[in-house]
Amino acid sequence: MKNYNYFNKTSEAIGDYYKQFDKIEVTKETYELWLESLEISGRDEPKDLGLKLASKNLNFIRFTLELNDHGLMDFLQDNLPKYIFKRWKNIEYVEGLDVV
């Protein structure tokens, strides 16, 4: 039951974090900055998709949120119970796990 609560609360908070994207005006400049931030070998596909479809890409959404001072760590710290945030923070750097 404890793990269910942890995963349920964490998933809900992360979902709420990404919902903030709907309130941000996405510009062509933001899109171009994001493209420039990608490794050269990874730019072709997102560039071909264009801004409208990039707005559905979690990497782009996260980039845009961070660019607009909506950091994931701060959001989770403010929206999760302390014991759940502490547990989440302790696993964030597990090798191969890209959550931050």
In short:
The protein has 100 residues and is mainly α. Helix 1 crosses helix 5.
Name the helix and strand elements from N-terminus to C-terminus, one letter apiece. HHHHHH
**Largest sheet geometry:** none
H/I helix tally = 6
DSSP helix fraction: 55-70%
Q: What value does the average pLDDT take?
A: 87
Sum up the overall morphology in one term: elongated
| Number of domain units | 2
Indicate the structural class: mainly alpha
Q: First CA to last CA: what distance?
A: 26 Å
In total, the number of strands is 0
Radius of gyration: 15 Å
Contiguous runs where pLDDT drops below 50 for at least 5 residues:
none
Oligomeric nature of the chains: single chain
- Percent of residues in beta strands? under 5%
Any overview of this molecule?
This protein has 100 residues and is mainly α. It folds into 2 domains: 1-24 and 71-92, no CATH class; 28-69. It has 6 helices and no strands. Helix 1 (2-19) crosses helix 5. The mean pLDDT is 87.
Secondary structure blueprint with pairings:
Layout: H1 2-19, H2 28-37, H3 44-54, H4 58-67, H5 72-79, H6 82-91
Helix pairs in contact: 1-5
Give keywords.
100 residues, mainly alpha, 2 domains, 6 helices, 67% helix, elongated
